[in-house]
Write a structure and sequence with these properties.
mainly alpha; Arc Repressor Mutant, subunit A; three-stranded antiparallel β-sheet; 7 helices
């Protein structure tokens, strides 16, 4: 990963779940002078990052970092090692714990179009 790719990835880390416009990435990641001299400098770098599957696009010229597979899966996580010991000592079964999806997950927040009547 070269310096331009690293600068773009570092900038996109500050916007973890949002798409950012390519022009905004060129302006913020490369600095003011570089943007004034070459406003389109980021587009070839963004294309390389898409090919390497480090970033994804929405098809409208906006980009964001790809979430790693381990981040996509909602793994159960203990609050602390002390809470884990307390719950394990209670000898209760927590296997049927309700998994609540994150509110930023677009798949869970969009209404279903299959159940709506067609006009």
């Amino acid at each position: 990963m070269d310096a331009d790719e690293r600068a773009i990835c570092d900038y996109l880390k500050s916007w973890p779940k949002q798409y950012v416009a390519g022009r905004e990435i060129a302006r913020r990641a490369g600095g003011k002078r570089r943007f004034q001299q070459e406003p389109q400098w980021a587009y070839p770098v963004l294309a390389r990052l898409i090919e390497e599957r480090l970033i994804e696009t929405d098809g409208l010229g906006h980009f964001r970092l790809c979430r790693r597979d381990d981040q996509k899966k909602n793994k159960g996580r203990w609050l602390s090692p002390q809470m884990r010991r307390i719950l394990e000592r209670s000898e209760k079964d927590f296997s049927e714990v309700l998994q609540v999806p994150e509110p930023d997950d677009p798949a869970s927040s969009e209404p279903s179009t299959e159940d709506s009547p067609s006009r």
